[in-house]
Write a structure and sequence with these properties.
Blueprint (H helix, E strand, L loop, with lengths): L7 E4 L9 H14 L8 H7 L5 H12 L8 H24 L9 H10 L3 E5 L4 H12 L9 E3 L12 H10 L6 E5 L2 H9 L3 E4 L15 E2 L8 H9 L4
Helix pairs in contact: 1-4, 3-4, 4-6
C-alpha cells in the first residue's frame, strides 16, 4: 500500500453504518404477506441469504430454491413480480426507519464529523437502493445529510453487486482519488472482497449477521467504531502493505 495521505473514507451502509438487517428481514416478511406469498424468512435463513448481495437478487435466489420449476414462468413476468415484492419491502423498510426502528452504529457519526472537520471527503458505496440510504441518513443526520458526502454509489449506479468492485471503482473515480488515499468500511466478506478488489485498505466492523464471515485481508477488524478516531485511522492507513 503506497503511503499516500489519507484523504477520504468510503462507507458501506447496511450492517456498517447501522444495524439494519433485522429491520430489512421484517420488511421482507411484511412484503411477502402483502404479496400473498406464504414465505416466512427466519434469522438463520436470512443470514444465509445475505451472502447474496441485493434485495431483488435475494428474492430470486430464494424463489429458485423453493420453486425449482419456476422457469416455466415468463422471465419478464417473474422480474415484474419480484420488482413489485421489492417495492412493498422498500416501503415497509422506509416506514420502519422513519418510525425510529434503526439508529447508526456506535462511533459512526463522531468519526464522520471528525473526518469532515479535518477536510477529508466522505463517500458511500453500497448495493442497497437510494431510497433506503435516504431514509436511514435523513433520520440519523437530518434533511441535508447529502451535503456530508462527496459521492454516493448504490444499486442504481452500480448494477453489478458486491463482491464485484464496481461500486468502489465508481467512488474512487467520483472522488478523483487513488485507492491508496482512501479507507473503506465494511461489515461482510462480500463487502471486504469488493473493496479490496478495488485496491482499498478496509476496516471491518462485523455484526451478528456477519460475525462468522472470513475477514482475511482486512486492514483491521474492530467490534464497532466507538473506540476509533481519525488519528488511529491515519496510523492504520500508514501501516506497511499486508
Amino acid at each position: 500500500m503506497a503511503h499516500a495521505a489519507l484523504q477520504a473514507l468510503i462507507f458501506d451502509v447496511d450492517g456498517t453504518l447501522a444495524d439494519t438487517e433485522s429491520v430489512h428481514l421484517a420488511a421482507f416478511n411484511h412484503a411477502f404477506k402483502e404479496a400473498g406469498l406464504d414465505w416466512q424468512w427466519d434469522l438463520a435463513l436470512y443470514t444465509q441469504l445475505l451472502d447474496i448481495s441485493g434485495g431483488k437478487e435475494r428474492i430470486l435466489h430464494y424463489w429458485k430454491q423453493v420453486n425449482p420449476d419456476m422457469l416455466a414462468i415468463n422471465a419478464n413476468a417473474l422480474q415484474d413480480r419480484i420488482g413489485r415484492i421489492h417495492e412493498l419491502k422498500t416501503a415497509a423498510y422506509e416506514n420502519a426507519v422513519n418510525s425510529g426502528a434503526v439508529s447508526l452504529r456506535p462511533g459512526v457519526l463522531k468519526l464522520m464529523d471528525e473526518a469532515l472537520q479535518a477536510g477529508l471527503q466522505l463517500a458511500i458505496a453500497t448495493t442497497t437502493s437510494p431510497v433506503n440510504i435516504a431514509a436511514l441518513l435523513r433520520h440519523a443526520i437530518g434533511s441535508d445529510w447529502r451535503m456530508n458526502f462527496s459521492a454516493i454509489g448504490d444499486a442504481s449506479t452500480a448494477p453489478i453487486k458486491k463482491p464485484h468492485p464496481q461500486v468502489y471503482l465508481q467512488m474512487l473515480q467520483a472522488l478523483q482519488l487513488p485507492a491508496a488515499a482512501c479507507l473503506a468500511f465494511e461489515d461482510s466478506s462480500n463487502g471486504l472482497r469488493s473493496a479490496t478488489a478495488a485496491g482499498l485498505a478496509t476496516v471491518v466492523t462485523p455484526n451478528s449477521f456477519t460475525a462468522h464471515h472470513d475477514f482475511a485481508g482486512a486492514l483491521k477488524v474492530v467490534p464497532d467504531l466507538s473506540q476509533v478516531n481519525l488519528q488511529q485511522l491515519r496510523q492504520w492507513h500508514l501501516a506497511p502493505a499486508r
